[in-house]
Amino acid sequence: MATAAAVGHGHPPTTTGLDHRKIAIWAFIGSECMLFTSLISTYLVYKGRSVTGPFPHEVCNPPQCATTLQPILNIPITSVSTFVLLMSSLAMVLALAAVQNKDKPGWAGTGWWARQLESSKLWLLMTAILGATFLGFQAYEFTSFVHEGLTIRKNLFGSSFFTLTGFHGAHVTVGVLWLLTLLAIDMRRGLGPKDALNVDIAALYWHFVDVVWIAIFTLVYLIK
Amino acid sequence: MAHDHPQSSGSKSEHAEEHAHPTWSVYWKIATILTLITAFEVWVYYIPAFVATKLFVPSLLIMSAVKFAIVVMFYMHLKYDHKLFRALFTGPLIIAGATMVVLLFLFGHLVVG
């Protein structure tokens, strides 16, 4: 029976036969879906209703603005940061696979590349570095926007944009700290199959942050 | 995941289906697909003639939805996991999506007819 299986895997039997921690993270992710959808909806509702510039995709000319302001969104930079976040998701699944298969040496094959694939430390570190790089891009973007005159109080675009992307950035920050904690545990005592669920929960959170950015990138940055 | 043992799973095939996660080579292929779709999204953004058509927004939304679904199904393993997890994710997602569409209608961003 599944209950017996659940006991055998080190946690008390549950009515569903599923680990409560995993149910909790999926319920949390479901609630986070609603949070980010409300923020994206707010951005879309206010889109095109700012009375003063800078604007995301349009030039702002006098008298609407004191001087001519170019469209503020930097698509090439954001495309690179989107790529970085996508690659961090790849690193995360490889970290999880490495932890799950820690007790099966050679599961990834033979040779130098296979040895790298089996290193959970490498992939956890890589995920954290890529996440931190994404945050660096976001910090650069926010700083350049402020220098160009867009603040959270400037117009409806600034308010909704900084709130939405700021919330996302805060989630990425939490994710990076979570990954660094897992990395510290891995370096201290090593993560193995018995820790797979803990890494899986962190991975689900990280991938969720990634899918939220997939939506933001299209709805905020690409759709004019 | 070693811990996810559905209580109702009587058959071995169902059990195996819920645990057969992709291999690392599949993960790399998925990453390549995601990168190519993203590159294509950015490419069409820089084609003024395409941006001016009615296809621009729907095509971007479809590509974004495909990327979203790929990450959720394969990286988050929802394709292989228990149906309760699927319900916990898709339920709120459907409510949130419907709320967004209603809000866009309410504030005049979407118009019928």
How is the secondary structure organized here?
The complex is a heterodimer of chains A (224) and B (113).
Chain A: H1 2-8, H2 20-46, H3 75-100, H4 112-117, H5 120-147, H6 156-188, H7 196-222
Chain B: H1 12-19, H2 24-45, H3 48-51, H4 56-75, H5 83-106
Structure overview:
The complex is a heterodimer of chains A (224) and B (113). Chain A has 224 residues and is mostly helical. Chain A contains seven helices and no strands. Chain A has helices spanning 2-8, 20-46, 75-100, 112-117, 120-147, 156-188, 196-222. In chain A, helix 3 (75-100) runs antiparallel to helix 7. The longest helix of chain A is centred in the last third of the chain and has 33 residues, at 156-188. Residues 1-8 of chain A have low confidence and may be disordered. With 113 residues, chain B is mainly α. In chain B, helix 2 (24-45) packs antiparallel against helix 4 (56-75). Chain B is flat, with a radius of gyration of 19 Å. The termini of chain B are far apart. The model of chain B is unreliable at 1-18 (pLDDT under 50). Classes of the chains: A mainly alpha (224), B mainly alpha (113). Chains A and B meet through helix 1, helix 2, helix 3 and helix 7 of A and helix 2, helix 4 and helix 5 of B.
* Biggest sheet architecture of chain A: none
CA-CA gap between termini of chain B: 49 Å
Number of alpha- plus pi-helical segments of chain B: 5
The greatest inter-chain interface is formed by: A-B, 63 and 51 residues
Helicity range of chain B: 55-70%
CATH architecture tag of chain A: Up-down Bundle
Please tally the β strands of chain B and state the result. Answer: 0
Distance between the termini of chain A: 55 Å
H-E string of chain A: HHHHHHH
Beta fraction of chain B? under 5%
Total number of strands of chain A: 0
Quickly give the structural class of chain A: mainly alpha
What's the short version?
The complex is a heterodimer of chains A (224) and B (113). With 224 residues, chain A is mainly α.
